[in-house]
Amino acid sequence: MTLKKQFFEAFDLFEKEGFTEDDLTRIKARNETSFYTSFSSILSKAFTLAQYQTFKGDPQFFMDDFARTQAVTMDDIKNVYQKYIKGKNYVQTSFVPRGEVNLIAEGAVNAGIVEEDVTKAAEVKAETAAEEPMSKHRQSSTGRFSLRWALILKLQYLRSGKGHSATE
Known about the structure:
Strand content: under 5%
Order of helices and strands: HHHHHH
């Protein structure tokens, strides 16, 4: 059975049997576990906060994001299915192992993508940045300290051999 057929069977099943409150509760519990796991270590905290700073301009936006996902209702799910999925156009891609042409999706055409030989890729050397002492009170021009830059500076410092990681 093709993956495409499995998707459409799942959509048909969704329309016939719907989505239960138990399904929603289970998904929210999984989301909550994943949320707390993203703060289980200093490294994962730093990455999570840096991502929110980078993409939303506010490292504390994770609280709003989590609250919004936990507030999803049965009606929200049904409305999203009707508005964005049911009967809508889609893009189907087909990536298969070399020589396994029998696995290519029906009607697929070659996109002309040339596979790069990564064994021959040139290494790019990063420029050495001038060291600058870090202060937890340092602020960017926007008035907020960028967590992303803090991580980059810390990594550069550790790579220079002058810093020590927490595991040493």
